[in-house]
Amino acid sequence: MKVAVYGRSLKPGAFKDATHFFNLLEAKGITYVIYGPFQKQLLKDLKLDLKANTFEKKKDLTDSIDYVFSLGGDGTILDAISWIGEKETPIVGINFGRLGFLASISIENIEASLDAIIANKHVIDSLNLISLTTDKKLFGKSSFALNEFTVQRTETSSMITVHTYINGLHLNSYWADGLIIATATGSTGYSLSCGGPVIYPGANNFVITPVAPHNLNVRPMVVPDNVEIKLKVEGRSKRFLTTLDSRNKTIDSSFELSLKKADFQAKLVRLSSSNFVNAIREKLLWGEDLRN
Predict the structure, then answer these.
(1) Are 77 and 152 part of one and the same domain?
(2) In what helix (H) or strand (E) does residue 190 lie, and over which residues does it extend?
(3) Structural domain of residue 192, as residue ranges?
(4) What SS3 state is found at 225?
(5) What percent of the chain has pLDDT over 90?
(6) With 80 as the cut, is the pLDDT of residue 148 above it?
């Protein structure tokens, strides 16, 4: 088995567990390559004798890679997905972060997880992505996201107007701080914090969630993900911020934005003992009385 190891940075408290992870890879005979900038930190801070090859560009992740191990939190997984793209290489998320909806494997279960993957006793979830196309160059070849696309105000305190169309029909002109178009996976992220609903994984939906709308009767709306959502933005400011997961670009009012379901998916590995129902109950503390 050959894997790629991706990470951004590790805090000192995670060094011991990271060392344990790489020792396990070598002990179990797993061949691995490491993301170049991440390897530099590992060599400096962990003093590990890492003799593995590195990868620096997307093309370096060849079809010979069986899995990509993401060491970090959910943000690290989102970055890894932008690297993998259409290859759909399964991602194993080892949670060195905090909440960990996507990075579902805890550092305490690293060895058991490796054994389960080697024995093919795991589940691969296929998750829909949202794809952005514009009439101008914006995010290049990484114009897709697992969680959400957003457009937001910047530079001034004035609200923006986001003219929104579904399959060519005018839905609304949102007067707000911004607008979120989230996938089912992303429904537990930024959209949730702005009052959006939780959507069960596998539901073929997007949710359109305004950020601090001026009109209180404007509410999040769930739509099927086989529609095309078009946006035009205007406001007092000349610049607006757009994001695809953790990546961001600024645009002006001349941009036309079109959002659809991507024609490829993200593949996330989870152990058969873990599931969304347990995760959301535990992560969001549902059913717990925090007064006691």
Answers:
(1) no
(2) helix 190-193
(3) 130-263
(4) coil
(5) 52
(6) yes
| Of 124, 94, 66, 56, residue with least CA distance to 266 | 124
Told to judge if 74 belongs to the known catalytic residues of this protein, a careful annotator would answer: yes
- Using alpha carbons, list the distances in angstroms from residue 256 to 162, 246, 274: 11, 21, 41
Parallel/antiparallel/unpaired status of strands 148-153 and 144-145: unpaired
pLDDT at 155 over 80: no
Query: Of residues 74, 79, 225, 245, which has the active-site annotation?
Result: 74
Q: Cα–Cα distance between 82 and 204 in angstroms, integer? A: 21
64 and 33, same structural domain?
Answer: yes
pLDDT digits (tens, 9 = 90+) for 253-289: 999 999 999 999 999 998 877 778 887 887 778 887 7
Q: CA 145, CA 246: separation in Å to the nearest integer?
A: 9
pTM for the predicted model, two decimal places? 0.90
Q: In which element (H, E) is residue 223 found? A: strand 221-224
